[in-house]
Amino acid sequence: MWFDTGLVILYLAVLIGIGVRGRVKDVRGFTALGGGYGTFTIFASLSASYIGGGYSAGNAAEAFSEGIKMTLALFGFSISTILIGRFLVPGVRRFRGSATVGGIIGASYGRAARALTGVFSFICCAGVVGAQMGAIGTVFNVLLGVPHRLGILAGCGIVLLYSTTGGLKSVIMADMVQFVMLAVGMPVLLLAALAKAGGVGEVIRSLPSGHLNPFNGTTFFGFVSLFLTMMFGEALAPPYTQRLLIGKSPESTAKATVLSGIFSIPFFIITGLIGLSAYALKITSNSAAAMPSLVKAILPVGARGLVMASMVSVILSAADGFLNGAAVGLVCDTIKTLRPNLSEKSELLWLRAVNLITGAAAVAAALALPGIFNILILAYSFWAPLILVPLAAALLGVKSSGRAFRYALAAGLLGTTVWNYLLGKPLGIDGAVPGLLCNFSVFAYYTSRYQRHRVNRILVLKQK
Asked: At 70, is the secondary structure helix, strand, or coil?
């Protein structure tokens, strides 16, 4: 066990070394603006960013306790990523020089819209980091015997160290290492688990009948709601959009995004099967600990250390990107917009300070809220129902106004809040879905008014 623990510590030291060595000295370095990253780098970094604790250990935990429902719902994310690469990424060419979601929103809907986007980027990203910190606490506790709360603090401290000093450049360098680790470690764990269980057939035969029912524990509409939440919840979230803006060309970035979406499909299947295998082998009664408990129970020394490091890697790879996304969004889109005369030195100090604050907020969320997916879905409610539709419209080249953005944001926020907390989620449908529909309806209405006004104005000018 000491050898395996040493491998994990060595891996964490490598990540810290990446941050310290890659220390940035200006805002451009912190945001990686103008990085010109190629297809494989964007593919690996994007994949490492979205495959976090929720989509790995969280998916395994859900498969352990509920069956295939969550794994199937996660395919919504895969479809969304492929469609974004195919239809939306080419639109980034209109926003070259932007480094944030707010940069796109501001160019399309005005300064107020950019400032609001920065606030909600921060809230969403802090929530997602909170989910990752909850997962890292469980992983450290089960694998290394570290108390859960201390594991959360240790995991957050490590990722804060290299993401605060090195910014997005260090995060991308770390993502490359983390992608290799997760792409190797998770299949190794699954193959070992299936061999121990006697194959996929034996695993399936050992499951309760409900585990193979996608509507287990929910309704048809509840499952559709979950699928749509996974499909739209993280779509074009700040760290993902940041990577789309720093690619070498829109064509190579689009290709990388599609490949990343395709890669996610077998990965979700692998992590879901890991959870089912843990259930079949009766490794633990605690679903949240299904994956780390499986690692400890079936892998030999050496291989166990590799997969332990892979599990840590999976979680940190999502946490670092969202930490950077929160800091860059709040500082570059909100604070810089409200204080346009802020010096570059002060802006860099703000970026590092907000990165640290986001980590503290994430720790608080991980300690206060139970369940990885509960935190993720709460974070999604501050993104898709508020920002996704106007952002997608901007990338598609749709002309609209600041009024359309503001009213749509208010409608999405109100719709989500009323549906979740006043109506109590009728039919088991999460408020992010009706909130997204409210946002889309209001945005479409005011955008059509704006475009009619533009057409009429052009006609009047021609008549003169």
From this structure: helix
Distance CA 59, CA 66 (A): 10
- pLDDT given at position 85: 95
Which of 191-200, 287-296, 331-340, 375-384 bottoms out in mean pLDDT, i.e. has the lowest?
Answer: 375-384
Question: Model confidence over 185-237: pLDDT tens digits?
Answer: 899 999 999 999 999 999 999 999 889 999 988 888 889 988 998 899 889 99
How large is the average pLDDT for residues 288-294? 87
The whole-angstrom separation of Cα 387 and Cα 115 is: 12
- Let me know: does 311 contact 295? Beta carbons within 8 Å: yes
Helix (H, G, I), strand (E, B) or coil at 37: strand
CA distance 123 to 311: 26
- C-alpha 345/C-alpha 26 separation (Å) is 7
Q: How far apart are CA 414 and CA 345, in angstroms?
A: 38
Q: Is 427 exposed, middle or buried (0-12, 13-18, 19+ CB in 10 A)?
A: exposed
Rounded distance, CA 125 to CA 387, Å?
A: 13
Query: For residue 405, what pLDDT is reported?
Result: 97
CA gap 254, 248 in Å, rounded: 11
Give CA–CA dist 28/51, Å, rounded.
26
